[in-house]
Write a structure and sequence with these properties.
- The protein has about 900 residues and is an alpha/beta fold.
- The chain has four domains: about 260 residues, Rhopdopsin 7-helix transmembrane proteins (Up-down Bundle), CATH 1.20.1070; about 180 residues, Rossmann fold; about 150 residues, Rossmann fold; about 200 residues, Rossmann fold.
- The protein is built from 37 helices and 23 strands.
- It has a seven-stranded mixed β-sheet, with helices on one face. A six-stranded parallel β-sheet has the order 5-4-6-7-9-8, sandwiched between helices. A six-stranded parallel β-sheet has the order 19-18-20-21-23-22, with helices on both faces.
- Helix 20 links the parallel strand 8 and strand 9.
- The protein is elongated and about 115 Å long.
- The termini are far apart.
Length: about 900
C-alpha cells in the first residue's frame, strides 16, 4: 500500500517538491521588488514626481507579496508533499489558503495591466490612445470583478472547499480556468499591440521603429506565460486527488507570471539607468541622438480637431527625452517648482507635460497677472517661468515682462506658437494680423528680454535652451522662448541634462583685479568718516550675504536705498535704514555729505529710487560696485563680476578697518499719542502695524502711498520687503504677492510662512482677480487695503480734484467670499478700521496674528493724505493752484 502511494497517482517518485516552490517564490519576489525599486529610483535621480502608473505598479507588487505569503502558508501545510502525509487540520488550512488565490492573482494582474495602460495615456496623449486605453482598462476591471465574484462562489456553501462532505456543489474547475485565463490572454495581446500604430507613425527610420516596438513588446513573455499557466491549470483540473503534490506547477507559474508582468511594466521606465551603462560598440552607430524624432506635419486641409489627434510621443531610447521634458527638467534643476500661465490653443500640448514633469501648475486669471506673479516668484527663488499663447497671450504679459527687465527679475517667458507648417506656409491663422507675418511679437519681446530663442530644430534645442537660461542667470533679466505647437513632444538629446550644469559663468580674472582689490582695500583702511550704501541690485548680483558680512564686520554706518531696503539686517546697531537725503533726517544727510568714503553696492540710479536723483553719492568720495565693473572716483575698471565683492570681503583684514569716530546719532521717532477715535493717517499707520511683522514674512508695498509708507518699517530678521521702485505698474504687487508667497513656502516647506501686502483701493482694482488664485493655492496672506477713494499717488502728481483719479467704490468685505473662500471664512477674516482704536483691536485679533488663509483689513484714510516726496509734490500743486 505504501509503495503504491509513494509513486503517486501520476507515477511520481516520492520526492518532496517544496524546494521548487521555494525557489520560484523567492526568485519572483526578489525580481519584482528590484524592478519596482529601480523604477522609483529612476524617478528620484531624474527629479520627476511619482506618476499614477508608478502607484499602480506598487499596488501590484503588494498583491505579489500577498501571493508569496499565501505560498508560504501552503508550503507549511503540505504544498509539494503527497496528500497522504498531511493531517486533516493541515488540509483545512491548505484549502482555505488556496481559496485566496482566486482573489490575489487577478488583483495583482489587474493592477499590472492598469499600470501599463496609465503609462500609455501619459506618454501617448493622443485622443484615440486615451479612448482605447480607457476601454481596455474597463474590460480589465470587469474581468477582475467577474473572476473575484466567481471565486467567491466556487463552492456553495463556500465552506465546502475545505469540508467536502457538506451538502452542496462546486463549479467545474476546467471551465473556471478557461474563463479566467482566456480573457487574461486576450487583454494582454491587446495591450501589447496598442501602442504600435503610434510608434509606426513616427517619422524615423524603420530600424528605430523596430527598436521602439521592441521596448513595448517585452511584455510578450508575459503573454507566453499566460498560455503556459492556462495549460498547467487545465492539467491540474484533470489530475487526481493528490492536490498538494499536483499543485506545484500551477503554484510556480502563479508566482512567475505576475513577476514577469511587473518587470516588463518597469523596464520601459528604466531609461536613466541604461543611460549610465557603457554603450557597446555595436550600438554606437545606432544612437538615436543623431536623429531627432518629430511627427508628420498635418495637412492644412485637416481640421484643428484632426490636428490635435496627431501628437508626438515621449517614448525614447536611453539618450533622448521630449523637448518639453528637457525644458521642464532644466527649470527644476535651477530651482523652479511652480510655473505660472494661462492656457491657449497654441500652448495646450506643452501644458500636457507640466504636471507630469513634477512642476506645479499655477493657472492665473490672465497673462499679465501671470507675469507679475512670476516676477515676484523670481525675486525669492532666483528664477521663474510663465507660459502664454502666441499673440494675444504673450502681449497681455509683456508689460509684466518689461517690469521684470527693468527691475532685474529673471523670468523665463515660454510662448506656444503656431505649428511650423502654418508658419512656413504663412497661413492666415487666428491670433495674427492676418498677413502671414509670424515674427512681429518676437521682435517686440527682443526689447524687453535679454535673450530670445525659437525652438524650431530638434537637433539644436538642448543647446538653445541651455544658452538662454544661462543668459537669464548671468544678467538677472527675462528671456523669451518660442515653442511651435508641433514641437513639445519631439525627441531631443538628453545628454546635457547629466553632463552640463547651467550656472552663472565666472568672470575671468583680469590683470587689473589684484591692483583694484589693493586700491579698494587701501581706501577702506584709511577712511575717517565712511559709510555703506546698499542698493537694490545687490540682490540681482547675488552678493546679499557678502554685503551683510561687510556691514557686520566693519561696523560702518549703513544705509539702504528704496530698492535696497530689506537686503541687510536692520537690527544690526550700525544699520540706519532708508536714506532719504534732504527728505529725511538732517543728521543723516550731514554725515552722508561729509563722508570721505561711501561704498555704494548694487547701484540703481533711477529717479524714484534716488528720490529725484538727490541720494546719489559724489564720485570723488565713492566706490561703486556693479555686476560688471568697479568705479573708484572717476576711474572705471570693467569686466569685474559680482564675485569681486566676495573676494574683497574675504581679502579684507577687518582688524585694520577703522571704526568711525563720530557716527551719526540715531533719531528715534517717539511714540505718538493718538486719539483712539482719530482718523488713521499715513504718517503713523506703518509704524503702528510694524509690530505685526515677524521673521520670515514677505512684505510687499504697492505703488503709491504704501510704497512710501513701507520705508518706515523696521523689518524683523529674515523678512524680505518688495517695494515699488522703477517700473511702477499699478496693480503689480497683488499678483507678485501670489508669486512671492509660493516661492517663500517652497523654500521653507517645514516652516509657516506668510505674505503681508499693503495696497491701495485703486491698485487693487487692476489685478484683484488673483485673490482667487491665492485662495486656491491656500496661501497665508494678510492684505491691508488702504481705502483712500482712488488713485492718491496720481492726485498728488496732478489733478487732485479731477474725477479721473476716482474709482468705483467696492464692497471690499465681500471679496474673500466672492473669490471662492470656504463658507464662513470671509466673514471671520475680514475687518475694517476707521480709527486708531479699531485698528489696534484688529491687529490684536488671533485671526490676524496667527490665522490661516486670506485675511483682509480695510483701512480708511483721507484721499489726499500723503507723506515724503509725494507730500512735497502735492504741496507744490496746491501752491500753484493758489498762485
Amino acid at each position: 500500500m505504501k509503495s503504491a502511494l509513494a509513486q503517486g497517482e501520476k507515477g511520481y517518485d516520492h520526492n518532496n517538491l517544496r524546494h521548487v516552490v521555494i525557489t520560484a517564490s523567492c526568485f519572483a519576489l526578489v525580481i519584482s521588488t528590484v524592478a519596482v525599486a529601480l523604477r522609483l529610483w529612476c524617478r528620484r535621480i531624474t527629479r520627476t514626481k511619482v506618476f499614477l502608473d508608478d502607484y499602480l505598479i506598487i499596488v501590484a507588487l503588494v498583491f505579489e507579496y500577498g501571493i508569496t505569503i499565501a505560498g508560504v502558508v501552503l508550503l507549511y501545510n503540505g504544498l509539494g508533499t503527497h496528500i497522504i502525509y498531511l493531517s486533516p487540520e493541515q488540509l483545512v488550512v491548505y484549502m482555505k489558503t488556496l481559496a485566496t488565490g482566486a482573489f490575489l492573482y487577478p488583483l495583482c494582474i489587474t493592477f499590472v495591466k492598469l499600470s501599463i495602460l496609465a503609462l500609455y495615456k501619459r506618454i501617448f496623449s493622443i485622443r484615440p490612445m486615451m479612448l482605447a486605453s480607457n476601454a481596455v482598462g474597463c474590460i480589465v476591471i470587469l474581468w477582475c470583478f467577474g473572476v473575484c465574484l466567481i471565486g467567491a462562489v466556487t463552492c456553495i456553501p463556500f465552506k465546502k472547499l475545505w469540508e467536502p462532505t457538506l451538502p452542496g456543489g462546486c463549479i467545474n474547475l476546467a471551465q473556471f480556468y478557461y474563463g479566467l485565463q482566456i480573457p487574461n490572454i486576450l487583454t494582454d495581446a491587446i495591450i501589447l499591440v496598442l501602442p504600435m500604430k503610434a510608434v509606426w507613425n513616427l517619422q524615423v527610420p524603420r530600424s528605430q521603429k523596430v527598436m521602439l516596438s521592441g521596448i513595448f513588446l517585452i511584455g510578450i513573455t508575459t503573454l507566453a506565460f499566460d498560455i503556459v499557466r492556462l495549460v498547467v491549470m487545465i492539467q491540474l483540473s484533470e489530475a487526481g486527488s493528490d492536490i498538494t503534490y499536483n499543485q506545484v506547477p500551477a503554484s510556480v507559474w502563479t508566482c512567475i507570471e505576475p513577476m514577469m508582468g511587473i518587470t516588463a511594466a518597469c523596464l520601459s521606465n528604466m531609461r536613466p539607468i541604461f543611460t549610465m551603462l557603457p554603450r557597446p560598440a555595436w550600438r554606437q552607430n545606432l544612437s538615436w541622438r543623431k536623429n531627432a524624432v518629430s511627427l508628420p506635419s498635418s495637412d492644412r486641409s485637416k481640421s484643428m480637431e484632426q490636428k490635435q489627434d496627431i501628437q508626438s510621443t515621449t517614448v525614447s531610447d536611453s539618450s533622448t527625452v521630449t523637448l518639453a521634458d528637457y525644458l521642464f527638467t532644466r527649470l527644476q534643476q535651477l530651482g523652479v517648482k511652480s510655473i505660472f500661465g494661462v492656457p491657449g490653443d497654441f500652448n495646450l500640448r506643452l501644458l500636457d507635460y507640466v504636471e507630469p514633469s513634477g512642476l506645479h501648475w499655477v493657472g492665473t486669471c490672465n497673462e499679465l497677472n501671470a507675469a507679475y506673479a512670476a516676477d515676484g516668484y523670481a525675486r525669492l527663488a532666483g528664477l521663474s517661468a510663465i507660459i502664454t499663447t502666441f499673440g494675444v497671450g504673450e502681449l497681455s504679459a509683456i508689460n509684466g515682462i518689461a517690469g521684470a527687465y527693468a527691475e532685474r527679475a529673471p523670468v523665463v517667458h515660454i510662448v506656444g506658437t503656431p505649428p511650423r507648417s502654418s508658419q512656413e506656409s504663412r497661413a492666415l491663422v487666428h491670433h495674427t494680423f492676418a498677413d502671414g507675418e509670424y515674427r512681429r511679437f518676437a521682435a517686440m519681446h527682443a526689447h524687453v528680454t535679454i535673450a530670445q530663442t525659437n525652438l524650431y530644430d530638434p537637433r539644436t534645442v538642448p543647446d538653445q535652451i541651455d544658452s538662454v537660461l544661462q543668459q537669464a542667470l548671468l544678467h538677472n533679466r527675462p528671456i523669451y522662448i518660442e515653442i511651435p505647437d508641433d514641437m513639445p513632444g519631439v525627441l531631443v538629446s538628453a545628454a546635457n541634462l547629466t553632463t552640463t550644469t547651467i550656472k552663472r559663468p565666472a568672470a575671468p580674472t583680469t590683470e587689473s583685479e589684484s591692483s583694484v582689490l589693493t586700491r579698494v582695500a587701501d581706501r577702506i583702511y584709511t577712511a575717517k568718516q565712511p559709510l555703506i550704501l546698499v542698493d537694490g541690485e545687490s540682490r540681482a548680483m547675488g552678493i546679499v550675504d557678502d554685503v551683510q558680512t561687510l556691514v557686520r564686520e566693519t561696523s560702518w554706518p549703513t544705509f539702504t536705498t528704496v530698492s535696497g531696503k530689506g537686503l541687510v539686517d536692520e537690527h544690526e546697531p550700525n544699520v540706519y535704514g532708508n536714506y532719504a537725503g534732504r527728505l529725511g533726517d538732517p543728521n543723516y544727510k550731514t554725515y552722508f555729505d561729509e563722508s570721505d568714503l561711501i561704498l555704494e553696492i548694487g547701484q540703481h540710479h533711477t529717479d524714484t529710487n534716488t528720490l529725484i536723483f538727490q541720494t546719489i553719492p559724489e564720485r570723488a568720495t565713492s566706490i561703486t560696485f556693479t555686476d560688471t565693473a568697479v568705479r573708484i572716483g572717476d576711474d572705471t575698471y570693467r569686466d569685474l563680476s559680482p564675485a569681486f565683492v566676495t573676494r574683497l570681503v574675504h581679502t579684507l583684514d577687518f582688524a585694520r578697518i577703522p571704526k568711525p569716530a563720530n557716527p551719526p546719532s540715531r533719531t528715534e521717532v517717539p511714540a505718538q499719542t493718538l486719539s483712539p477715535t482719530g482718523r488713521i493717517t499715513q504718517k503713523d499707520f506703518y509704524r503702528r502695524v510694524n509690530s505685526l511683522l515677524r521673521p520670515g514674512d514677505v512684505v510687499l508695498t504697492e505703488t503709491g502711498t504704501a510704497s512710501y509708507g513701507g520705508r518706515d518699517f523696521k523689518l524683523p530678521r529674515g523678512t524680505r520687503l518688495f517695494g515699488a521702485i522703477t517700473w511702477l505698474s499699478i496693480g503689480y504687487m497683488l499678483p507678485a504677492t501670489l508669486g512671492a508667497g509660493l516661492a517663500q513656502r517652497e523654500r521653507n516647506p517645514d516652516t509657516p510662512t506668510r505674505a503681508v501686502l499693503f495696497i491701495g483701493d485703486g491698485s487693487l482694482q487692476m489685478t484683484v482677480q488673483e485673490i482667487s488664485t491665492m485662495i486656491k493655492e491656500k496661501l497665508d496672506v494678510v492684505i491691508f487695503l488702504i481705502n483712500n477713494e482712488g488713485y492718491t499717488i496720481e492726485r498728488a502728481i496732478h489733478g487732485r480734484k479731477q474725477s479721473y483719479n476716482d474709482v468705483t467704490r467696492w464692497r471690499h468685505h465681500l471679496t474673500a467670499d466672492f473669490f471662492g473662500a470656504e463658507d464662513g471664512h470671509g466673514a471671520k477674516n475680514s475687518f475694517t478700521a476707521n480709527n486708531w482704536a479699531e485698528l489696534d483691536e484688529v491687529l490684536q485679533r488671533e485671526e490676524i496674528q496667527n490665522g490661516k488663509g486670506l485675511r483682509w483689513v480695510e483701512v480708511f484714510m483721507e484721499k489726499e493724505d500723503v507723506e515724503g516726496l509725494l507730500k512735497v509734490i502735492l504741496d507744490k500743486q496746491i501752491a500753484a493752484e493758489k498762485a
